[in-house]
Every structure is written in C-alpha cells, then in structure tokens.
Amino acid sequence: MDQLEQLKKITTVVADTGDIDAIRAFQPVDATTNPSLLLKASQDEKYAPLLDKARQYALTQGGSDRDQLANMSDYLATLIGREILEIIPGRISTEVDARLSFDTQATIDKAQRLIELYQQQGVDPSRVLIKIASTWEGIEAARQLEKAGIQCNLTLLFGFSQAQACADAGAFLISPFVGRILDWHKARQPDANFSGDNDPGVQSVSRIYRYYKTHGYDTIVMGASFRNIGEIQALAGCDRLTIAPALLQELASLKQPLERKLSPENSGSTDSKEALAESSFRWALNGDAMATEKLAEGIRNFAKDQETLERLLAG
Question: What are the beta bridge partners of residue 154?
Fold first, then answer.
C-alpha cells in the first residue's frame, strides 16, 4: 500500500479543497472548504454555472445590494458543498463569514441560514459541519449551536487555550492548524530544525490530541494547514487530517511503511483538565503571541477573500 492508503486505515482523511475533480480522484471521507478555497474554485471556468445559479437565486430573494451579495455567497457555498457531498460519503464543512468572528448572535444566525439553504437543496443537516473561527464569540456560538443540533468545526485554532475552550463548549470537531504555526516560528528562527517531531505545529496538535483523549472529551481533533508531508506523517493516527490535493498526491506516491504516531491508548497528558472563563481564555490567548497574531491574520485573510469572492459574484 502507498502511504495515503496506510494513513486512511488509522486516520480519517479529509480533502482540504473546493475542487470537485480532486475530491473525486482521492476519495476522502469528508471535505472542508473556506472562503479562500471557494474563491479559487470560483475562478475556474467549470464552476461558472454555479456562479450564475447563485446570482439568479439572489435576484429572486431581492433586498438591498448587501443582502443580495450575502445570499449569492451563501448559496454558492452550499451549491459547491452539495456537489461535493454527491461524491464523498461523509460531511462537508462550510464556513461562516469571517467578518462575523466577534459576533456570537450573527454567527448563530448565519449558521442557521447555511443549514436552511442546504435543506432547501435536499441535504440533511447531519452531513454538514459549520466552520467557525475559534474566537471566544465563535466558541460561544458553537456551544449554542451544538445544543440546537447543529454540529460545528472550530477553525483558525492555534493556541492550547482555544482547544480547551472548544472542548468545554462541546464542539463536534476542531481544526488546529499546523503549517501556519510553523510559518510563524520559521520567520523568527530561520536556521532552526523544525522537521518531523520538532515542528511546533505538530507539537501543538499532539498536545491537544493527548489532552482530549486523557480527559475523555468527545471533540474530534482534525489537524489542518499542512506545509509538507513530514507534518502529516508525524501526526499519523490523529482522529482526522484535512489535506490539500498536492500533498495527497505526494503521499500516494510513497510506498514506505507509515508509522502510527498518535493513538488513544498512548495519550498521557500532563495538562490538567480546565474549563476557562472568558477572562481566563482571553488572558491565555493574549499570552500566546503566535496564536494571537495568527488568529487575527487568519480572520483578516478570510475576510479579504470573502470580499473578493463577493466582487466576483457581483460582476
């Protein structure tokens, strides 16, 4: 077996792309999208009919220009999500507008709207995860949505305090980032050896995984944002890994044995179980320069791509 086949036996592999052809080729269980991936997909000519359909839907709904842009964007996200769900057996993660990252009620309203649009297209809500940035407000929105039966994927997660709060909120799944953590450290220590287990992103996800398993949290850990296959190999055995097509292809080309690195049976954590109050969460996040900077940067970049996508739709 190649390493992708081996990985699929110990980890649920998720496709980190909006490219339907790539998803069909690699046959993941689940798939994730975000504004950046939707923007990239929307610039491909084969998605033009979906863009036209989203525009027509928004026109039928009426409202202000702002309302129509929101309807176009949300409908396009669910159109692409539905197309992906026709290929995969599992779930699609669809992201809430990053500009709502600091508004709990607006995040809840948007999540309910996305689920409603999926239902209008015949998609059962059980096949959808709502992606929300791991701000305090986003995590609180997820707490309420989970209680209402809408399951969530907490993304843009860089710090341990974010992982603690997500688990306490009962989030279905978290997406702790790996590659963006590595980027931050490499920018500051360009000559350091960050390969394999030395990768700070790998260390972060491993710590979170051990904490969840040791303390019996049901929240799924799905490593995300990989820069190289070494990071994936170092997290083999994690609950789920969401991987871009180029790295899936690279794994599929390797025939060497793949060692399992993470398992529930060997997950002793030295971190004590803790439910963070808002003040404790904000203080811990503030004390982690990397997590604070990368969270803010991620929100800004997703918001920027969302705005670019809306201009494309408006055109």
Answer: 132, 174
Predicted pLDDT at 41: 84
CA distances in angstroms from 29 to 184, 249, 253, listed in the order given: 30, 16, 20
The yes-or-no answer on residue 304 being catalytic is: no
**Structure pTM?**
0.94
pLDDT confidence of 266, banded at 50, 70, 90? confident
Residues 6+ apart with CB under 8 A from 41: 18, 19, 33, 47, 80
- Write down the catalytic residue from 131, 213, 261, 294: 131
CATH of the domain at 172: 3.20.20.70
Residue-range definition of the domain harbouring residue 127: 3-19+28-314
**pLDDT tens, position by position, 206-252:** 999 999 999 999 999 999 999 999 999 999 999 999 999 999 999 99
Give the per-residue pLDDT at 40: 87
What is d(CA 30, CA 301) in angstroms, rounded to the nearest whole number? 24
pLDDT digits (tens, 9 = 90+) for 132-154: 999 999 999 999 999 999 999 99
The total of structural domains in the chain comes to 1
Across the range 49-70, mean pLDDT stands at 92
